[in-house]
Amino acid sequence: MADPLLKVENLFQHFKISRSFTVKAVNGVSFEIFPGETYGLVGESGSGKTTIGRSIIRLYDPTGGEIFFNGMKISGKLGDRAQRMLRKNMQMIFQDPMSSLNPRKKIGDIIAEGLDIHKLYNNLTERNEIIATILKKVGLSPAHAERYPQQFSGGQRQRVGIARALVMNPKLIIADECISALDVSIQAQVVNLMKDIQVETNCAYLFIAHDLSMVKYISDRIGVLHKGYLVETGTTQEIFSNPIHPYTKSLLSAVPQPNPRVEKNRQLITYNAENVNYDAAKIRQITETHFVLEN
């Protein structure tokens, strides 16, 4: 088996609000992502999914734990070499396709910002060719480079966000609920686009979402988050066919079924999360890849 592209070990992310109160958003999370793989991270709102993604890409400074990316440690204080490697090889697609784009900049300048910073072209002609190529790849026209974000629909803006991430040819893309603000038909287009690009470039995805059906469609392995803890992780088939943790069972029971007869008799499983104290040491291996955190 190849070495993991990303390795997260015992990640903690706490936010001190006042002298007496600290939000413990992420508590001892560990997982790995391999080259060309899609790792889905699911859980209810407030479970710590986005915080993990932002901590990995170092928009937040992790409170504790270690993060290794592309064979280099990227947690703690970043040196110049590690920072350059991180910025070139890891990109993020943000949840809101409008607020993540600068309304004062044209689409071409937004996409090429990373190219400009790292000087990845020789002249202006080459820069324009790179922008035109990446716009075509995400299903947009090269002429769109001269427009502003407010002139696009939500689906087109998200494609711009994907183009901005892909133009650096990264090894890992963190997709933070990048389809949650889109219509269902547009969601399918964006996810299929991401799968096609993955086949072409062999990039890895950390796919953060709460839509279990979409996570099942795109992910190779899945991690289930609850209250900042990774309670279960395994392959997509293992998680959906043989969920072990009660919280995972509760999440899966809430997924609507397209068959009205099945939906009519669907039984919701309620998970009582009160007074649950997770111990990161009590992790049990079910199969070679399936892990469950026992409470």
Secondary-structure map:
Elements: E1 6-16, E2 22-33, E3 38-42, H1 49-56, E4 64-69, E5 72-73, H2 80-89, E6 90-93, H3 107-111, H4 113-118, H5 124-137, H6 154-166, E7 172-176, H7 184-201, E8 204-208, H8 212-218, E9 221-226, E10 229-235, H9 236-241, H10 246-253, H11 260-264, E11 283-285, E12 291-293
Helix pairs in contact: 6-7
Describe this structure in words.
This protein has an 8-stranded mixed beta sheet with strand order 6-7-8-3-9-10-12-11, with helices on both faces. Strand 9 and strand 10 (229-235) form a beta hairpin. The protein has helices at 49-56, 80-89, 107-111, 113-118, 124-137, 154-166, 184-201, 212-218, 236-241, 246-253, 260-264; strands spanning 6-16, 22-33, 38-42, 64-69, 72-73, 90-93, 172-176, 204-208, 221-226, 229-235, 283-285, 291-293. The chain is globular and about 60 Å long. Helices cover 34% and strands 23% of the residues.
What distinguishing features does this structure have?
295 residues, single chain, alpha/beta, 11 helices, 8-stranded mixed β-sheet, 23% strand, 4-stranded antiparallel β-sheet
